[in-house]
């Protein structure tokens, strides 16, 4: 399932698309999402390729609603799959090879008291 749209296996074909506006241009991105919804698109993907894009969709932009995401997880995921918390980071620590430094992420989460394993 993606939201309330069944995908995979024997699910019917779902109409989907992806925005092609620059994600930091929130007004254009929201406008394009609304046009896609009005045209019958069931799944809309949004690219978040960099920290600027991540900052643009968080906070007051209306594109990322942490409470709605948490409610969706409570409604659709089994207890053992449900995230213990949701953190929004402007940028993840990466190595010179552009790989996410998972140990640094874990250490930062532990330091700020975020729930974990």
Describe the secondary-structure layout.
Layout: E1 16-18, H1 26-38, E2 43-45, H2 51-57, H3 66-76, H4 102-111
What does this structure look like?
This protein is mainly alpha-helical. The protein has a domain at 1-64. It contains 4 helices and 2 strands. The chain has helices at residues 26-38, 51-57, 66-76, 102-111; strands at residues 16-18, 43-45. The protein has a two-stranded parallel ribbon with strand order 1-2. Helix 1 links the parallel strand 1 and strand 2. The longest helix is centred in the N-terminal third of the chain and has 13 residues, at 26-38. The model has no long low-confidence stretch (mean pLDDT 81).
Can you give me a brief rundown of this structure?
The longest helix has 13 residues, at 26-38. With 117 residues, this protein is mostly helical.
Question: Which terms summarize this structure?
Answer:
single chain; 117 residues; mainly alpha; two-stranded parallel sheet
Order of helices and strands: EHEHHH
Per the principal axes of the C-alpha atoms, what is the gross shape? Answer: globular
Taking the sheet with the most strands, its summary is: 2 strands, parallel
Given the helix and strand composition, which structural class is it?
Answer: mainly alpha
Beta-strand percent range:
5-15%
Number of separate strands: 2
Using the CA coordinates, give the radius of gyration: 17 Å
């Amino acid at each position: 399932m993606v939201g309330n749209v069944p995908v995979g296996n024997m699910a019917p074909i779902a109409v989907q698309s992806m925005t092609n506006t620059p994600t930091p241009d929130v007004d254009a991105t929201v406008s394009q999402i609304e046009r896609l919804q009005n045209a019958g698109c069931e799944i809309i993907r949004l690219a978040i390729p960099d920290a600027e894009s991540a900052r643009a969709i968080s906070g007051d932009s209306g594109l990322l609603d942490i409470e709605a995401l948490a409610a969706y997880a409570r409604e659709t995921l089994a207890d053992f799959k449900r995230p213990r918390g949701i953190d929004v980071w402007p940028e993840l620590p990466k190595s010179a090879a552009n790989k996410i430094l998972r140990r640094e992420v874990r250490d930062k989460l532990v330091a700020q008291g975020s729930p974990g394993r």
